[in-house]
Amino acid sequence: MTTPIPAVANNKANITTAEYVKLTIYNEYGNLANNNVYTFSSSYTSDTIDGVEYSPLGGLLAVGQQNRSLRVTNGDTSVQISGIGGNNIYAVLESQGKIRGSKIEVTRGFFNPNTMVLANAVVRFTGIVTNYSIQEDREGLEDNFTVTLDASSFKTILENRIAGRKTNKNSWQFFDATDSAMNNINSLAGFTFDFGSDPKSKTVVPGYNGGGIPGGGGGMTKPGDTTNQNRK
Amino acid sequence: MAGLQTIINKASSLLIDRRKVVGLQITRNEIPRVTLTPTKQPWKMELEMPSSLKYYNNRDLLEALDTMDRVSPEIVTFSNNPCLNWIFRYQGTLSTTSTGLLIGSSVQSFNGNQLILNVPVVPGNRVIFEPNDLIQLGNYPYPFTSTTRVLGGSGTVTVTTNRPNILSYNVVGLSVTVGNACKFNVFCPNMPTYKLIPGGYTNINGSTINNALIEFNDSFQLYEYVGTA
Questions:
Q1: Distance from the CA of B193 to the CA of which of A186, B56, B133, B228 falls in 20 to 30 A?
Q2: What tens digit of pLDDT does each residue of B150-199 get?
Q3: What is the residue extent of each domain of chain B?
Q4: Which residues, other chains included, contact A226 with Cβ-Cβ below 8 Å and sequence gap of 6+?
Q5: Looking only at Cα atoms, what is the longest distance across chain A?
Q6: Is there a contact between A44 and B34 if contact means CB atoms under 8 Å apart?
Q7: Residue B163: closest CA among chain A residues belongs to which residue?
C-alpha cells in the first residue's frame, strides 16, 4: 500500500521538511504502559504529531540513512543526539540497558513553504534500538559529546527472533495446559506419509489397534517398513 | 565591561549571515531542486577588528572577552553608538518611544512566519514596515525582520517575517520594538585569541610607558544564542 504525500507530489521543486524522532523506552517487561517517551526534532518549534509533542530542544544532531525499497527489506539506521546538557545521556544511562529494545520512530514533517507551518507528517522508519554509544571527541580545546542510537527495522528483529513452539504436546501445553491439539502427535512421530497416493497397504500403528490414518488418502510408511520402501 | 558590545562598537566591518539550512541539487538537465529545513535561523555576524587597538587602553576588554570565552552569551545592540545606529534604523512611519517601542502596538498572533500585529489606525498609504525593518517582541532579544513592505489602513497588519516564530514563550499581547533598539543575544563560538605587538607608547601622567597593539588572530564570528529563545 502506498501513502500519498501531497507535499512532494508532482515533482515539487521546493519542499520544506523537518525530521521528528520518538524514542519509547519500556521500563517493565510485559507492561507497555510503563514507559518513558523522548522526542526530538529538527524543527524550529514544538510541533504536535498524532498527539505527541516533539520538542526542538531535544538536541537532534543527525538521522542516519533510511533505506527505501519497493520490497520489504532490512534497514538499519542511527540517530545522533547531543550529549551536552546531560539530559540525553541521562535518558540512556537511566534506562539501565533498557534502551536496547526500545521503540524508535522517525517521522518526516512537511511544512507549508509560505507560512512555515507544519502541514502533514509521514512515518519513515519504525524499529528497535539495538545498541547505543556515548562518545566524547576532544580535539584541542574543542570537546564534543554525542549519543548515538543504532536502530534496526522490525524485519531485522523478526529475522533474528528465536521463539514460537514445537509441534508436540509438551510445547503446546506450555502455553495452554488445556490444549489437547498435540496429544496424539507422539504416536505419529517418525512416520512418513505419501500424501495423495493410493493406499497400498494396511499399516498398523503401534498401540492403536489397527486402522489406517483417517481419510485414507495416502500411503504411509514407518521406519523399517521395507514393503513400502521397495514400492517407491 | 561588555566585551562583545565593545567589539561591535569598534569593529571595522560587519558581515551579516542569515542564510538558511538547505539541500540543493541541480539535475542533469539543469533544473534546480531545493529543500529547506525550518530551523531557528540564527543571526550570524562576522566582525573584523582594526589593528589599532592598544593594549594598555583595552585591558578591560581583553579580560571581558577571556572571561566570556566561547561559552557565555551577551545581549548587544546597535543603538548605543551614533556610528552604528543608522544600520538598523526603523524605516516605517509609526511613532516610537525613545526606546524604540512602537506606540499603541501589540502582538495579536504569531504562527509560522505570519506575525499579526495590532497597530494604530493610519491611512492606507502609510508604511508600517519596510523590508529589512527589525522587529523585537517584548523583551526577548531575538529580532525578526519584515520581508515585505507593510502598509497601514486598518488596526491590524500581517507581517511576513524572515524566520518563523522561534520563541517558546506566549507572545500574544507583547509590545513591539523596532529598528536599532532591537537587541541580539549572541555568543562568539570562535572567540579569537590576541597577539600583542610592542609599540604605541602611552603617556600616563606625564610619563611615557610601554604599550602594544592588539592583533586578533581571527574575526569575531557572533552567533545568535537561540537555545534560550
A1: B228
A2: 998 889 999 999 999 999 889 999 999 999 999 999 999 999 999 998 88
A3: 1-78+184-229, 89-181
A4: none
A5: 88
A6: no
A7: A116
One domain, residues A109 and A223:
no
Residue type, A199: P
Domain containing A76: what range?
6-159
pTM given for the model: 0.75
CB contacts of A46 in chain B (<8 Å) are 168
Fold of B89-181: Elongation Factor Tu (Ef-tu); domain 3 (2.40.30)
- Which of B37, B41, B114 lies closest to A17 in CB terms? B37
CB contact under 8 A, B35 and A56: no
Considering the domain boundaries, does residue A168 fall inside one?
Answer: no
Q: Can you say how many angstroms the Cα of residue B105 is from the centroid of all Cα atoms in its chain? A: 22
Min Cα–Cα distance to chain A from B35, Å: 5
How distant, in Å, are the alpha carbons of B46, B196, B221 from that of B217? 13, 11, 12
pLDDT digits (tens, 9 = 90+) for B107-148: 999 999 999 999 999 999 999 999 999 999 999 999 999 999
Cβ contacts of B109 on chain A, cutoff 8 Å? none
| Whether residue A74 is found in the same domain as residue A21 | yes
- Interchain pair B35, A112: CB under 8 A: no
Is A18 within 8 Å of B31 when comparing Cβ atoms? no
Residues A61 and A12 in one domain: yes
Q: Is residue A225's pLDDT more than 90? A: no
* Structure ipTM: 0.79
Query: Would the CB atoms of B34 and A18 count as touching at under 8 Å?
Result: no
Same domain, A103 and A211: no
Find where cell 507492561 sits.
Answer: A31
Number of domains in chain A: 2
- Average pLDDT in the B198-225 region? 86
Cell numbers 545592540 correspond to what residue?
Answer: B77
Four-residue CA torsion sign, A79, A84, A88, A89: positive
Looking at the structure, tell me whether residues A133 and A206 fall in a common domain: no
Pairs across A and B, CB distance < 8 A:
53
Q: Is the pLDDT of residue B219 over 90?
A: yes
